[in-house]
Design goal:
The complex is a heterodimer.
Chain A lengths: L1 E10 L2 E11 L4 E5 L6 H8 L7 E6 L2 E2 L7 H5 L2 E4 L11 H12 L4 H14 L15 H13 L5 E5 L7 H16 L3 E5 L3 H7 L2 E6 L2 E6 L1 H6 L4 H10 L1
Parallel strand pairs in A: 3-8, 3-9, 6-7, 7-8
Antiparallel strand pairs in A: 1-2, 1-4, 4-5, 9-10
Helix pairs in contact in A: 3-4, 3-5, 4-5, 5-6
Chain B lengths: L3 H34 L4 H15 L3 H16 L5 H26 L3 H10 L3 H31 L11 H12 L2 H32 L1
The chains are: A alpha/beta, B mainly alpha.
Chain lengths: 240, 211
């Protein structure tokens, strides 16, 4: 579903991604872990070209997203993204946040889109917050609203960039629960996270990154239980 | 004194008309060149920078004289004093509005653009639906401030013979020699207009602070 070949990314002289090859299959949940500065967020942001790759190819359902001939706006509609800082639109209500993209980009009728929006808010446990502005939500509620917003375009793949890192600890569980439900429904997901417990429980595969490379990847029980690489062992001994 | 009032009020009317038309044109200039100034395109960026630097780097009186007397002498393009006046105030206010738009747009968190683009919106759609509605709110006090500055700048149009408020006053005391009273009255009329706008601006600021 996602295939990444020889992905490289530099910021000026700083080479953040050196040679990334990876694959995510349909309905697979892949967690990317690693120390800060390892390039894992940049890696995720290259997949929908929020960062322009310096080299390599990224295939989304067979189409090369790095090819300038392909319409990036159309391709991004298939990829939902959730940010660490939520990035909700503060001048719109929660429901408007969720419905603005399908309304404008799919040209659907307001009633139909509002219905979809309400269903999504229900799903993330925010039915009672539809007409509230984001400023009046807690961090956990904001992130769940952001997930609903991303789902509103009915993407085939969801990307999560440290979705719980900006949350108070007591809010983390609600957001992870929503993500777990998504995984159970068979959504293809790629998650950059520091939540090792979540990765272990939900991921089908875990990728460990360090220094711009994928150092090791495997099933969570293997990677967490019996890491092969020295750097993986060192990282896990610090965070577990 | 009383018979001076209708003439002065007519002058005040022209002051308001010229300011409003000029500000509307300046808003278009400000938005378009403001977007140019934050664009990644070097050429567009340079055009916006040069425009802003030239206008901000020269006195408005020189700009008015240049458009009304300079342009016809150099290029043969002639225009009425009113047209020249509106053009001068527009391009002058436009330059300041470019900076106001640029600062306003830049003040919006980068994550807003990323969130919009990620949903599948183009750059232009994200600007229109997500960034500008937020930025414009923050710019309102600066807009009103520029409006006030431009009202005062229109008094300089008296040098090219436009019968706005200041010119109207001059033409009255030139005949009745009561410069003290007439100019005081002219000042009061400007003050009332501008003070009303100041109060309006404070009210807007409070309102949008809450939202």
């Amino acid at each position: 579903m996602i295939k990444i070949e020889n992905l490289r990314k530099s910021f000026g002289d700083l080479e953040v991604l050196k040679d990334i090859n990876a694959e995510v299959k349909e309905r697979e949940v892949v967690c990317v872990i690693g120390p800060s500065g390892s390039g894992k967020s940049t890696f995720l942001r290259c997949i929908n070209r929020l960062e322009e790759p310096t080299g390599g190819s990224i295939y989304i359902e067979g189409t090369d997203i790095t090819d300038p001939k392909n319409n990036i706006n159309k391709m991004r509609q298939r990829l939902g993204m959730v940010f660490q800082q939520f990035n909700l639109f503060p001048h719109m209500t929660v429901l408007e946040n969720v419905t603005v993209a399908p309304k404008r980009l799919k040209g659907k009728a307001k009633a139909e889109v509002d219905q979809l929006g309400k269903e999504l808010l229900e799903k993330v446990g925010l039915s009672d917050k539809a007409d509230v502005y984001p400023d009046n939500l807690s961090g956990g509620q904001k992130q769940r609203a952001a997930i609903a917003r991303a789902l509103a375009m009915e993407p085939n793949i969801m990307l999560f960039d440290e979705p719980t890192s900006a949350l108070d600890p007591e809010m983390v569980g609600d957001v992870l629960a929503v993500m777990k439900d998504l995984a159970k429904e068979g959504m293809t997901m790629m998650i950059v996270t520091h939540e090792m417990g979540f990765a272990r429980e939900v991921a089908d595969r875990v990728i460990f990154m360090d220094g711009g490379y994928i150092v090791e990847e495997g099933k969570p029980e293997d990677l967490f239980g019996n890491p092969q690489h020295e750097r993986t062992q060192a990282f896990l001994s610090k965070v577990l | 004194m009383i018979d001076a009032l209708p003439v002065l009020l007519k002058g005040l009317w022209w002051t308001v008309v010229i300011t409003v038309i000029s500000l509307l044109i300046a808003l278009v200039i400000g938005l378009v060149l403001g977007l140019c100034s934050i664009s990644r395109n070097k050429l567009l960026k340079t055009i916006a920078t040069i425009y802003v630097d030239i206008i901000r780097g020269t006195p408005i009186l020189v700009q008015i004289l240049f458009i009304y007397f300079g342009l016809p002498a150099g290029t043969g393009i002639t225009m009425s004093a009113l047209t020249a006046g509106i053009i001068a105030i527009s391009i002058n206010a436009g330059a300041y509005l470019v900076e106001i738009f640029r600062a306003g747009i830049n003040s919006i968190d980068k994550g807003q653009m990323e969130a919009g683009r990620t949903l599948g919106f183009s750059y232009g759609e994200t600007m229109r639906l997500i960034i500008l509605p937020q930025a414009v709110r923050r710019m309102i006090p600066a807009f009103v401030n520029q409006f006030i500055v431009s009202i005062k700048d229109t008094s300089l149009l008296s040098v090219i013979g436009i019968a706005e408020l200041t010119m109207s006053g001059q033409s009255i005391y030139a005949m009745n020699f009561r410069a003290f009273e007439i100019l005081a009255l002219v000042g009061i009329l400007y003050f009332v207009l501008i003070y009303a706008l100041t109060l309006f601006s404070r009210w807007l600021e409070r309102r949008f602070d809450v939202a």
